[in-house]
């Protein structure tokens, strides 16, 4: 009788077509989480193998062999070794690249020797055909002793046959998969025999791995001690054993390749990929093309996201306006409109950028160019403690740090990944643009040099350059203090160029948006509600006194109701907890050239940097029907001594502060989620705020 739910572990080398097969089998019926204890994506999905058998597929991280080095490889390794306490696989679906079969067979042969049910899905058959590689599939099946099915996930070919084979294998006895690929017992006969006495159900090859990695398996203390005793008694040498194993496996693999695979000779003509790499990896033109691609990626995020972001903002504006007219004036309605709905708007407005960014990144990955970007930039990144894979998150940070930090997951080295997460928010995101724009228009003349170089544009570019430069400097300094001892290996396989899989692009966009909305969104809503409370209430009866005073003024001057209502909002904000905090920090920010109103904006814009403009609009009581613009009101703002608030030194200081300060609760929420601790978000907030204060102080005094 068939099991009601079959658990299938999907494994394979990186770039073997594993993700394509997973998406083809599961479609949108999948979800993304985290493997227990590590920040590694756990993708699971469901598929029907036949009318009576449903299957849950677990897409394990790509790995080249059963000797793990990185956190994601350990995840796959423990599942295959049966050492994962939560994930148990009934069948292993191994994805192998037909155009690189020799390399894929190493991993395949190791899984076969674990004596677990295995089915091989042979992908990239069209690429193999272009290389004039011919594979005798029936002969390969007979040689390996496992079913081999040729598939093309992009075109949904072979999937029906694959499901049928998986269903058949699930009903077979495990003893039918007992053929040895090689005699691993000969590597350490005495050691293996003693381990099998301790664990009778363990295969000979599994015994080798228990000897090497038993400390990482969930074994009782007594069994751990016994394993240590076996190692000492038999003088087991893990390095020598592993080296001998790999040599023996490749000897057998060469025999299989000679018998069942026909390849062209070394004089085969260069493929299109090789020709294109001569240009894209060129010492000069490669970097020029890279800059053009990154510029187009950066611009596309703005161009493509602008309309849906405006649409989301319009919907929430109309929703808030409609509810204001319908609901009674009460604390709960204010909480709903200005707390919950405003917070929800702040979450969903990021979704278009997140989806577009990850969609474009997926296209670059699918086409094979992402690997070339990492290769080209690795030399520079490594000098500051990062590696080539740090480039895309940092570039993506120009649009939004939230999806950029999420995209740092593909960096295997823990230290380099953490450094990337910590410095990416220094890249000037799109939320800073409204702040830059209004401040630049206040103090920088709209002049042009040579007829086309705008001074305002040059200042804007300088702000972006400052963020990038400081990110590299900070990374260089922090690499000496973050004590994560993990060797960095930048081993990169350059995949062939292919057309993007649009279904995969769509699925990725949806999944990344869901992760942001449902995970980071919870924290954002909580902080939004807290900010609403701080901005809406004050100590004692201060707020009530302000309301009573303005109620009297409105009654006396009904023709100025709208104007007085604006001033009421401004004064209530001054007397709220947030306003009092702004007044309290004024002595600290005065050396930077700021007044208490800017202090309030610094606090409220923690929800999102673009809130700065909205806060200024409220504070300066700008009326929609008034001819004076916000810029004009800010330009006319005076200190108590009559001096202008927004002078060149003060505005430049404020711009530098917004370039460097961590004023984005969405980013902090995502950093907490990715690092699984509040330690690093707090550190990030402290160092960025301190750096912003120091350089803003220097800027103000330099231009004063």
Sequence-ordered SSE layout with sheet pairings:
Blueprint: E1 5-12, H1 18-26, E2 30-34, E3 41-50, E4 53-59, H2 71-80, E5 91-97, H3 101-112, E6 118-123, H4 125-130, E7 134-135, H5 137-144, E8 148-150, H6 159-170, H7 189-198, H8 204-213, H9 221-234, H10 238-260, E9 261-262, H11 272-280, H12 285-326, H13 331-348, H14 351-367, H15 369-383, H16 391-396, H17 401-406, H18 414-423, H19 433-443, E10 448-449, E11 453-454, H20 455-478, H21 502-536, H22 542-556, H23 561-575, H24 577-589, H25 596-604, H26 611-619, H27 630-636, H28 648-660, H29 665-675, H30 679-703
Helix pairs in contact: 3-10, 7-8, 7-9, 12-13, 12-14, 13-21, 14-21, 18-20, 19-20, 19-27, 19-28, 20-28, 21-29, 22-23, 23-24, 24-25, 25-26, 28-30, 29-30
